[in-house]
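ARCHIVE CARD
Drawer: 12
Card no.: 0347
Subject: one protein chain, sequence and derived structure
Cross-reference: see card 0346
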Amino acid sequence: MNKLIISGILLFSTFAFSQVAIGKTTVTNNSVSLEFGPENRGIILPWVNSAASVTGAVNGTLIYDTNDKKVKVKYATGWKDLSVNSTGVVDTSLQSPLTEKPGAKVSIGTPSAVPGILVLEDSNKAMILPKVASPHLAIINPAPGMMVYDTTAKQLAVFNGSVWSFWKP
């Protein structure tokens, strides 16, 4: 019963306010649609068997490709590799026997037909990645496809299953 009430509150807050805080009580400002609390954890991207098998992806879609062990982002010209390194390892034994649910979707903002598992639908808000100081030191057991913002180096960090890749604007 408690789970049902909590789920209802989360669902109501997701659609009523279009802002969600995970691991904290509030988001930092009105420009945020999804924000994570201050812990040494990252967000894990959806695993796919290959980027080529992803249909209907829109620009900005992020995935972890288990075929070549790379984190990728969709651009108009195709998929761009964010991993730099192709030595990643991933154990897919937990997900391999599972059945894909193509209709599964969580939407924050005004729901639309845009495909994806977690879709941030606001045109004037953004997601703030989990913030971690030196994730290569702080996160003891990172999962393949993990992304965080490195607060020490002030850059995006992605983990491909073996090594962290760092992206600075």
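Annotation on reverse: The CA atoms of residues 13 and 56 lie 28 Å apart. The first strand starts at residue 20 and ends at 22.
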